[in-house]
Amino acid sequence: MGSPTYHDYKDRLDNGPSPEPDITHAKMLVFLALTIQMGHGIRDKLTDYWATMDQLYTLFYSTMMKQDRYLHILRYLHFTDNRNEPDRTDKNFDRLCKVQDLFEILNGTFSKFYNPSENLVIDEVIVSFKGRVIFKQNIPKKRKQFGIKIFKLCDSSGYRYDTKVYLGKDRQRRAQHVTATELTRKTEGHGHKLYMDNFISSPELFNDLAK
């Protein structure tokens, strides 16, 4: 069962008024702007962005949107309709189906509007995540021990040109260089120099890239 959407929740209410009005397009843009801004000033807890203590207080967040309003939107934020969720027992079930459309839009935009520099690197990163997904990784040697593994193709400026989420289906080394091959296809034939560590590189990978 997927988590409830806002309209699922409203359907279960009595005929009384909704506890929160519908979200407008303008409010949604403010929500996204606040979420992006949070990445520039990491706090221990989400509610710390609205804290009134002198050492944490930032007027920007409370001015743009009240804390309860932000948390309300976050709670019911969905990118797919749960009623159309695919069969999880299907062997081809997409474990990223909840955000697949959004992920493809962002990924396509990253590569569409930027020409990468000569030097490119393929590496992996663990994005901290405490929710419940079957492909969440536990890597004790990483600073962020629990999270979602993402393979990235970046240029020397740090711009993320392409990404692939590791969905936990393949545990063999083959999965590493298949992912690396897919990430480099968009930049083939343009004279880029490719860097990666020995965890990703292999003779099979370079044979694939040479084809």
Question: What's this entry about, in short?
Answer:
This protein has 211 residues and is of the alpha+beta class. It has seven helices and five strands; from the N terminus they run αααααββββαβα.
Your description of this structure?
By secondary structure, the protein is of the alpha+beta class. The chain has two domains: 6-75, no CATH class; 100-210, no CATH class. 32% of the residues lie in helices and 15% in strands. The chain has seven helices and five strands; from the N terminus they run H-H-H-H-H-E-E-E-E-H-E-H. The protein has helices at residues 6-12, 25-38, 59-64, 67-75, 100-112, 174-184, 203-210, and strands at 119-128, 137-138, 146-155, 160-165, 193-195. Strands 1, 2, 3, 4 and 5 form a five-stranded mixed beta sheet that branches. A hairpin with a 7-residue loop joins strand 2 and strand 3. Helix 6 packs parallel to helix 7. It is globular, with a radius of gyration of 21 Å. The mean pLDDT is 78.
Based on the model shown, name its key terms.
211 residues, alpha+beta
Span between N and C termini? Answer: 43 Å
| Helical segment count | 7
Report Rg.
21 Å
Determine the structural class based on helices, strands and strand pairing.
alpha+beta
Number of strands: 5
H/E element sequence: HHHHHEEEEHEH
Q: What general outline do the C-alpha atoms trace?
A: globular
Q: What is the average per-residue confidence, as pLDDT, rounded to a whole number?
A: 78
Q: What share of the residues does DSSP label as strand, in percent?
A: 5-15%
**Main beta sheet: strand number and arrangement?**
5 strands, mixed
Helix content estimate: 25-40%
